[in-house]
Amino acid sequence: MTVLPGILPANPSAMADLLCTTDLTAASTVAIQHAMALGDRLGARVSLLHVVGKEERRSVDEVRKSIEQTVDALGGAAVQLLMPEGDFMEEIVAESARGHRLLVMGTHGAHGLRQKLFGADILKLVRKAATPCFVVQEGSPVDRELCRIVLPVAGHQDIGRLLDAVCLLARACAAEVHVFQLMRPGEAPSDVLLANKVRMFERLEEEGIRQVEANEPMNSFSMGFAKATIDYAQRIGAGCIAIMAHASDEYRYIADAEKERILSNPAAIPVLCA
Length: 274
Prior knowledge:
The protein has 8 helices and 10 strands. By secondary structure, it is an alpha/beta fold.
């Protein structure tokens, strides 16, 4: 770990911070902005994680200075900097297990280089991470109010971790949660799907969170759910979409591709994964 001048020293007892990855790209700068905004809402500090690659070992001071300049340009908030050496994804997964409240990351869409998370890589990472992930893109506007969260109904056996993450953000931001279900003509929802929908509303009610039931009719033939979810979120001006990181038994064969589409959605809406 490295501590920057003017940046908070490490505090092992402070386990409620937000972890944010940075690879010195525009997308990671946006991720830092989002992390700072969420930190303000949650009353949590931000820890920045930059994994030092082999080609950077001789220029660690330059990397540190560049990150410090980025933080200063964004308002100079007090953050902690972690700079381990090793494999990018392995180090992120390992650090995510050290008690952080949320992991904020920038993704680079369909293409990218070594440390740039993109396509299937970001999906693999959110599945391995030990904490819920908030994924943004270079074009993701920082919604400091985060007034609306779209929560698609999931067919998973255990949706508790995602509900915990949604409630955490919704309470902090006084957000309205839209429980979204795509209605397929002639197809009855499974018992698990229906039970999860009831569970979502009950939990939101218990937490005192405003909620909207959004039953969206399918307008075109498609087995996927990504496009309809993104379109709805964009239409209502949602601050994020909340999805399960892992695939459910239903539509498992298309779920990975659909989740990748949501994570790198063309509207650049942030995605909360758990």
